[in-house]
Design goal:
Blueprint (H helix, E strand, L loop, with lengths): L5 E11 L18 E14 L2 E2 L4 E8 L8 E8 L4 H11 L9 H8 E4 L3 E3 L2 E5 L4 E6 L3 E6 L1 E2 L6 E2 L2 E3 L8 E11 L5 E16 L2 E2 L2
Parallel strand pairs: 5-6, 5-7
Antiparallel strand pairs: 1-2, 1-15, 2-3, 2-4, 4-5, 8-9, 9-10, 10-14, 11-12, 13-14, 14-15, 15-16
C-alpha cells in the first residue's frame, strides 16, 4: 500500500521491438521472443507529496529475454537533467514501485526487473502528437526514437488503429503507430518498424485513473 500520494498526468509513449499491436498487451509472447524497448512520459501536471513534477520527462529502457511475466528483465531509468535532487528522488520513488498498490504498473515493473542499471540524467527533447500518431524523442548519447503512422502496404496511406484497455495498467486508450529506436546506453539495441503506443494518461498509486 502506498504511503505517499502522487499523481502523474501527461503524454505517454511506449516503443518496442514487437510487431504493431504489441503482443504483451494481449498477454501473448513477444514477436521476436524477446522484448526490447522503452516507455515513459512527459508530465504536464504532477506531484509526489508536496514536490511538483510539472513539465518533467522520464523514460525507462528495458530488455526482457522472453515474455514479461517470466521476468529476468533489465532496465535503465532516464530522468531529465533539469530535475532537482528532490524531484529526482520523487521520480525514483514512483518508479521503484514501493509507492504503488499491488498489481499496478510500477509495482509489476519492480517484480519483473532483476537488473537495474545506473540512471541517466540528460537533456530531453520530446515531440508528441497523439492524434497525428507522430513523436520524436532525442536524448543525446543515450536514446533516439521516432514515431510515424502505420502505412497501408498497398496505397501508402496512413493507417489508424486504437487500442482500448478498460482495465489496462498502462493506459486506457492508445493510438498505435510505427517506431524506430536507437538505444546506446546500458541496454544497446536498434529497431526499425516496431510497435508504438501514444496515449494521454493519469497514473496514481492506485493505478490508471484516466
Amino acid at each position: 500500500m502506498a504511503s505517499e500520494q502522487w499523481r502523474l498526468e501527461g503524454d505517454w509513449i511506449k516503443n518496442c521491438s514487437c510487431a504493431f499491436g504489441c503482443p504483451c498487451d494481449f498477454n501473448a509472447k513477444p514477436t521476436n521472443g524477446k522484448c526490447e524497448g522503452f516507455l515513459g512520459m512527459r508530465i504536464a501536471k504532477g506531484h509526489y507529496g508536496q514536490t511538483s513534477l510539472d513539465g518533467l520527462s522520464f523514460f525507462v529502457v528495458v530488455h526482457f529475454p522472453g515474455p514479461l511475466h517470466e521476468g529476468n528483465g533489465q532496465a535503465q531509468p532516464i530522468i531529465e537533467e533539469r530535475a532537482s535532487p528532490e524531484q529526482r528522488q520523487a521520480l525514483f520513488s514512483i518508479m521503484s514501485g514501493q509507492q504503488s498498490d499491488e498489481g499496478t504498473l510500477f509495482h509489476i515493473f519492480s517484480q519483473i526487473v532483476t537488473k537495474m542499471h545506473d540512471p541517466v540524467f540528460a537533456p530531453v527533447r520530446f515531440e508528441f502528437d497523439q492524434a497525428g500518431r507522430t513523436a520524436r524523442l532525442s536524448i543525446p548519447g543515450v536514446l533516439e526514437s521516432d514515431v510515424e503512422p502505420i502505412k497501408n502496404p498497398v496505397t501508402g496511406a496512413p493507417h489508424r488503429i486504437q487500442v482500448l484497455m478498460p482495465e489496462g495498467f498502462e493506459h486506457r486508450m492508445g493510438e498505435v503507430a510505427s517506431s524506430n529506436i536507437s538505444s546506446t546506453g546500458a541496454i544497446p539495441f536498434k529497431t526499425q518498424g516496431g510497435h508504438s503506443t501514444l496515449a494521454k494518461v493519469v497514473q496514481t498509486p492506485q493505478g490508471v485513473a484516466a
